[in-house]
Amino acid sequence: MTNRTPADLAPRIFDGDRRALARAITLVESGRADHRAQAGELLEVLAQSGRQALRIGLSGTPGVGKSTFIEAFGLMLTGQGLKVAVLAVDPSSSRSGGSILGDKTRMERLSRDPNAFIRPSPSQTHLGGVARRTREAVSLCEAANFDVVLIETVGVGQSETLVAEMVDLFVLLMAPAGGDELQGVKRGIMEMADLILVNKADGDLKPAAMRTVSDYSGALHLLRKRPQDPPGFPKALPVSALEDEGLAKAWEEMTTLADWRRENGYLERRRAEQARHWFEAEVREGLLARLRDDPTIRAQMEALGATVAAGESAPSAAAAKMLDLLRH
Questions:
Q1: How far apart are CA 161 and CA 89, in angstroms?
Q2: How far lies 250's CA from each of 4, 151, 199, 242, 255, in Å?
């Protein structure tokens, strides 16, 4: 970030300068206190643009063909003149080295497209930190006038919930499967999904894919009706990223759902709820950071923790004493 202030970066980002965008994302990924302050200043300036993209979360099990789907789907959208950004939430990347860090090299055509921008997740295991940086990267991409931001979750478990809290639509990409695999899909993830896309609906796998679509459709109809859904949603559809089949239909369903939610006030209300959620998360994270980083507070925590471990104090009483110390 040498010789570049937020005031310098903002107009370049507004103009869609990809280097400025990449530099700004590097800034928001930094944990340095001075960089965090600069990032906050930059985000405040960029928020005044009021630009919004359609934010789409994408999750799927390993081997489902996510990178192939993202490339084919992204190229279809850029072919329609849309600007597409691809971001990742990967709390496990520092251990596995996989995810979009490897996928970027496989998505060669999309990474070369002038209307596309691909950004790997920062390699760190702290899920809250990854989520915050991804969320801020979304805001930067919107300010740079991208039309669609695809947020891929490549971690497991909690990362899906985090992504659902920063998107307008949540898409689950699945492979052709039998009844046993369907039973293994977590109900919570099913309930988050707005659209289930069964990939690899081509060649010998096509009949199995169509059966899987039917199975998921049946399962979705058993779920409780959500107020943010028009009739027929959520739904399951077959796609083939390899043969570019079903991608246009999937995009049509996504835009239909997003338009309905926008017209009925759900999209704006959901974004307001998400903004409040992340505000509270930032406050909690700041308080935890203070507990971690302030040597005086850390020493008090360790001293009180020792009394609890020795059985000299109840956990609740020690916690109340710690909170009382923080007030002064």
A1: 11
A2: 41, 16, 11, 15, 9
What's 21-38 look like in SS3?
Answer: HHHHHHHHHCCCHHHHHH
Q: Is this structure's pTM higher than 0.90?
A: no
Rounded Cα gap, residues 247 and 231, in angstroms: 21
Edge-to-edge strands, sheet with 84-89: 116-119, 84-89, 148-153, 54-60, 169-174, 195-198, 235-238
Phi, psi of 46 (to 5 degrees): -70, -30
- The SS3 call for residue 156 is coil
The pair of structure tokens assigned to 134 is 């991804």
Q: 102 Cβ partners below 8 Å, 6+ apart?
A: none
Per-residue confidence of the chain (328 residues) as pLDDT tens digits? 444 567 789 999 999 999 999 999 999 888 788 888 899 899 999 988 888 999 999 988 778 888 899 999 999 999 999 999 999 876 554 444 444 444 445 688 999 999 999 987 655 545 556 677 888 999 999 999 999 999 988 755 667 888 888 999 999 999 897 555 555 566 677 788 899 999 999 999 999 999 999 988 988 888 888 899 999 999 999 999 999 999 999 999 999 999 999 999 999 999 999 999 988 988 888 888 888 888 888 899 999 999 999 999 999 999 999 888 888 7
Sort 39 into a burial class: Cβ within 10 Å, 0-12 / 13-18 / 19+. Answer: buried
CA distances from 283 to 35, 42, 325 (A): 18, 19, 18
Look at phi and psi of residue 167 and say left if phi exceeds 0, alpha if psi is from -120 to 50, else beta: beta
